[in-house]
Amino acid sequence: MAKTEALSQTRHTLVLENRERMDLGGVQEVSAFSDTAVSLKTSCGALLIQGRGLNISRLNTDTGELHISGEVTMLKYSKEKRRGSLLEGLFK
């Protein structure tokens, strides 16, 4: 099984302590990062984390683990859009 296939089947976990420390599992890729936002792809879809003073202190791409510190003000999940024909969308 390829590394990306194994990560896509990894269970996604999120532990947030006092809105200051966050440990995540099932992270496939970090798309963008700043001190106010982290955008990443997890095994459960895309995740946007917003806050102040955000810092990635640990990232392990082999295991899909990520640790973020700073003040977390928002978490937003979104599903990746499925690509299909127009007819498939009409008959859901």
SS element count, helices: 2
Uncertain residue ranges = none
Q: Average pLDDT value?
A: 84
Structurally, the number of domains stands at 1
Question: Strand order across the biggest sheet?
Answer: 1-2-6-5-4-3
Radius of gyration: 15 Å
Largest sheet: 6 strands, antiparallel
> Kindly, what is the distance between the CA atoms of the first and last residues, rounded to a whole number of angstroms?
32 Å
What class, by secondary structure content? mainly beta
CATH class type? Mainly Beta
How helical, in percent, are the residues?
10-25%
CATH architecture: Sandwich
User: How would you describe the shape?
Assistant: globular
Order of helices and strands: HEEEEEEH
Number of strands: 6
Q: Under CATH, the topology is which?
A: Immunoglobulin-like
Fraction of residues in β-strands: over 45%
What does this structure look like?
It contains 2 helices and 6 strands; from the N terminus they run H-E-E-E-E-E-E-H. The longest helix has 6 residues, at 3-8. It has a single domain (3-80), classed as Immunoglobulin-like. The chain has helices spanning 3-8, 86-90, and strands at residues 13-17, 21-25, 27-33, 37-42, 45-60, 65-78. With 92 residues, the chain is mainly beta.
Short description:
Helix content is 12%, strand content 58%.
Please supply descriptive tags for the structure shown above.
single chain, 92 residues, mainly beta, Immunoglobulin-like, six-stranded antiparallel beta sheet
